[in-house]
Design goal:
20 helices; 0% strand; mainly alpha; single chain
């Protein structure tokens, strides 16, 4: 895959992710209006985070990081990729069926482990009930992740990209029905979770069948290749477990302040927009591409893909991070403050959003650096780095709680994220030319940073100037739109003037289309 084609694939995945995040934002705005940051919202957010936490633990973060490189290399070598994928599908399904049953039965202990601050009030019982209803989602979405890995390896990014869009559309329809028919909103949301899982699995199943990869359920076969997959995945599973411990620490710290779990979740949703569009998209495309290049001994092509992916990530992520910090309060006030979500909720969410925004480049760079390791089937090093980051996160989140309250959870996440980036960068240096920054990357990075700083100054001043309009219900959307448009214009002009990017870059992309 040439660098321009790589960027085009990233744009495809990023475009679908943008659409998904947009639909997800509409879902969150509706949830904020209907539930606010009260007990029902806290209970549902904890319950929904449980299957999603284990999904990242089993499928997206660990299993797929081992599965995709092996599958892509089998495709490149003309080996039995289909049989390997079938065995992996059946093996993963068997493990997850057992795990889903155990998790549903153990839900009171899981909720306590996630949010012990709920104990003794109504949030605990609600979270247990919602969790028992929704936990089976892990089975469906983990199999979806595997099928999406197959589709991505074939370059079918559109089908895999539509999956999260489908989830958010179903959630929006369910809330509208609940409002119209008078259903309990919390219970409706809980039952919607497994329904979306079934719909997503059906869609990816059909999409994979269309390219010749139909999977008939069957008993798992313990083949030598599946054993090797398990051996490679084991450190990644452990690394995924460490990452989820970080999430547990944040939820635990927040659970002792009523509403804080929801504040963190709503802030998380906003910074996840650029993270998903840029970071996840690049990681999705870069991993199979680097795996193929390693198989073909194409060091020059691997280095070009890595550098252009990093450059593209920073080009979009640095200004997004600056904007999230500079416009944290206007964003949360304009986008969330309505119905049951009041001004204090908006202010607390803004604090978390600004802290997460400062860590956004780190979270994106994780997705850029990790494929360098996973493409080489090296899952041990990221696990060691994740353990170090976990220790930093726990120390900061717990240690700073007396000083900063719930915001300590966000601080721990952001600072440990930068520690993880530093470790990944240091660990990648001995890998050879594929992991080295080229001259173009070294020249453009400081220019991208300077253009982002210029944009940040304009946004900060503009937010002060338009503060009265941002507080008026009739004008706040227009005022925020003006700020965003001004920021984009300043960044574009400064970037061109400083040489952070050139018109020829976009012309080359258009020619490839």
């Amino acid at each position: 895959m040439q660098p321009i084609r790589l960027i085009r694939s990233v744009l495809t995945v990023g475009g679908w992710t943008l659409l998904s995040r947009g639909a997800g934002f509409a879902r969150d705005v509706m949830m904020a209006a209907y539930l606010g940051a009260g007990p029902v919202a806290d209970a549902f957010n904890v319950a929904f985070s449980l299957p999603n936490m284990f999904r990242r633990f089993f499928a997206e973060g660990a299993f797929n990081m081992a599965f995709v490189p092996m599958f892509a290399k089998k495709l490149e070598a003309g080996e039995d990729a289909k049989g390997f994928a079938r065995d992996a599908f059946n093996g993963l399904a068997a493990v997850l069926i057992v795990f889903s049953v155990i998790g549903t039965l153990a839900m009171p202990w899981l909720v306590w482990a996630m949010a012990s601050g709920f104990a003794g009030d109504a949030r605990f019982d609600m979270a247990v009930t919602f969790g028992q209803i929704s936990f089976s989602y892990i089975l469906f979405i983990s199999l979806v992740a595997l099928l999406s890995g197959v589709l991505n390896a074939f370059g079918h990014f559109t089908e895999a990209g539509f999956v999260p869009v489908l989830m958010n559309l179903i959630f929006i329809a369910a809330m509208l029905l609940a409002k119209h028919l008078g259903w309990d909103m919390g219970t409706t949301l809980a039952w919607t979770v497994p329904v979306t899982g079934v719909a997503q699995l059906a869609f990816t199943w059909v999409s994979a069948a269309r390219i010749g990869f139909s999977f008939a359920p069957g008993l798992p076969r313990i083949t030598p290749e599946l054993k090797r997959l398990a051996a490679i995945a084991a450190p990644a599973v452990l690394a995924g477990g460490v990452v989820q411990i970080n999430l547990l620490v944040g939820r635990q710290v927040a659970s002792y302040t009523e509403g804080a779990v929801s504040w963190l979740v709503y802030a998380d949703r906003l910074y996840q927009l650029p993270l998903g569009v840029v970071g996840i998209a690049i990681g999705t495309v870069l991993l199979p591409d680097l795996s193929r290049r390693l198989r073909a001994n194409d060091a020059a092509g691997g280095r070009a893909s890595f550098n252009r992916g990093t450059e593209f990530a920073l080009l979009l992520t640095l200004p997004a991070a600056v904007a999230l910090v500079a416009l944290a309060l206007p964003l949360t006030t304009v986008l969330y403050q309505r119905g049951a979500f009041d001004a204090q909720d908006a202010e607390m969410t803004a604090i978390a959003l600004a802290i997460y925004g400062a860590g956004l480049p780190a979270f994106v760079l994780h997705k850029v650096f990790q494929p360098l390791f996973y493409a080489r089937e090296n899952t041990r090093a990221p696990f060691v780095y994740a353990v170090v980051s976990m220790v930093v996160n726990v120390a900061l989140a717990v240690g700073l709680y007396p000083l900063f309250g719930f915001a300590a959870a966000a601080l721990g996440t952001t600072l440990s994220g930068w520690v993880m980036v530093w470790q990944l960068w240091r660990g990648a240096q001995p890998m050879g030319p594929e992991a080295q920054f080229d001259t173009r990357m070294k020249q453009r990075f400081p220019r991208i940073a300077a253009a982002s700083a210029a944009m940040g100054a304009v946004l900060w001043g503009g937010a002060e100037l338009l503060a009265p309009a941002l507080a008026l219900h009739g004008w706040r959307y227009a005022a925020l739109a003006v700020l965003i448009a001004a920021g984009m214009a300043v960044y574009g002009a400064a970037g061109l003037a400083l040489g952070a990017f050139r018109k020829s870059d976009f012309a080359a992309l258009r020619r490839q289309r």
